[in-house]
Amino acid sequence: MPPELNSRPLLAPGCRLGENNQQRVLLMPERALRLNGPSLEIVERCDGKHTVQQIILDLQKIYSKAEPQKVEQDILGYLTLLQKERALDFESGAPL
Amino acid sequence: MPTTLSNPLALIAELTHRCPLHCVYCSNPLELRSRTNELPTEIWTRVFKEAAAAGALQADFTGGEPLARPDIVELVRAARSAGLYVNLITSGLPLDETKLAALVEAGLDHFQLSFQGAREETANEISGTKSHAQKLRVLDWLRHHRVAVTLNFVIHRRNIDQLEEMLALAESSCATRIEFANVQYYGWAFANRENLLPTREQLNRSVEFLKREQERLQGKIRIEFVVPDYYAKYPKPCMGGWGRKLMLITPSGDALPCHAAQVIPGLSFENVKDRGLREIWEQSAAFQKFRGEDWMQQPCKTCDRREQDFGGCRCQALLLAGDAAATDPVCSLAPLRPKVDAILAAANLAPVSVGAGLAPPAADPLTPPAWLYRPNPS
Hints:
- The structure holds 2 protein chains of 2 kinds.
- Chain A has helices spanning 38-44, 52-62, 68-84; strands at residues 8-11, 16-20, 23-28, 31-34, 88-91.
- By secondary structure, chain A is α+β, with helices and mostly antiparallel strands.
- In chain A, the strands form 2 sheets. Chain A has a 3-stranded antiparallel sheet with strand order 2-3-4, covered by helices on one side. In chain A, strands 1-5 form a two-stranded antiparallel ribbon.
- In chain A, helix 2 packs across helix 3 (68-84).
- Chain A starts with 7 loop residues before the first strand and ends in a 5-residue tail after the last strand.
- In chain A, 31% of the residues are buried.
- In chain B, helix 2 links the parallel strand 2 (58-62) and strand 3.
- Chain B has 14 helices and 9 strands.
- Chain B has helices spanning 41-53, 72-81, 97-105, 120-127, 132-141, 163-171, 187-191, 193-196, 200-216, 277-283, 285-289, 306-309, 314-321, 337-349, and strands spanning 10-14, 58-62, 85-90, 110-115, 148-155, 177-182, 222-226, 246-249, 255-256.
- In chain B, helix 1 runs parallel beside helix 2.
- A 9-stranded mixed sheet of chain B has the order 7-6-5-4-3-2-1-8-9.
- The longest helix of chain B is centred in the middle third of the chain and has 17 residues, at 200-216.
- Chain A binds chain B through residues 1, 12-16, 18-21, 25, 27-30, 32, 83-86, and chain B through 9, 52, 55-58, 83, 85, 87, 109-110, 112, 145-150, 176-177, 218-222, 224.
């Protein structure tokens, strides 16, 4: 199930951004994901304030040369992957 | 040294062998180190800095019971300040709410609470203590803290039929992960193997159940499942390959490529008191010994899977084949696989004595096995 566009993803407890040897990583229980370019842009916005829709709009602006539809698909795919990793909580309703 | 040598990804810090539990499958060596041999705070602090500098991302605090260290909060702070993600693998026993708050405040990222079963009687029998009720209290306190929570269940013959209850416990808590790790047979578990190894039927049932539950709980609770490798077709890539990803430091500071490496005769281990971590990782003879492929025998040497499983586990090869360089005998291609099959055949013939709670057959009440319990070193 892809996340809802008006929900606000937030890194789950125990999941945070880290850095080692200039490489940004998403640290989580027993795992770490390398973050580069778009994946970093997405994870930095998983702060419980940006909605999925806002993240998509932001990245479509940053990557304006890419096909907007493709950007949206990639973002939803990546958020779904993070959700499977149990790295995200999705807040709904009014922003915090 | 090959220039392609990878960095250690995680440091396993066995802070102490002291532990209030006496689990019959403890991964600690049979010869436990006493408190007087434990590394002081300053050396651990240096080790954490060196680990992060060498590229490690995570520190796993384990033991024994890491909370038995009076400086545990300081150690969490030191590892986190060094830039590491801090995992605490604990029984939750020597813990109160104040200490928990201090650990989280010091930068603890992930709290892994071990359970010996879903039912008090089974859990207490396996751990050789009355510990279950305290674990439930700790699980409740954890709701009030922003930290990842994993429930760790070690699975074996006597509790593998309780997975549903274990999962229900996780669902009623704030845990986002649950680990069902079948016992691996080294150390204390090797000594207690015949009473721990599940039957094939038990294993198949549990695999089917967990597949369904993984689907149902996706996005809510992540379920990890480790099979008993005696039943596997191919061996596990033990430690992600010898000296490839992980480094373990014993309570007294010896640097090991895996938990059980000390059983392998002829290996000598360097100590972090004498040498920097990066140097040990790159140059220590023990880390070199089974790194890469040069040490491999047939069938590993020419096997297509050698870069996937690295020949399996060296300690298991030693325990079952008497030769640490042999193909892991659990591999279906290994010359000694018949030995593992014989062990399984015996386990599948023996009656299943389930943990307390399920009614035993009335005509033949089964008594708990004669466990070899792990002692608590002074």
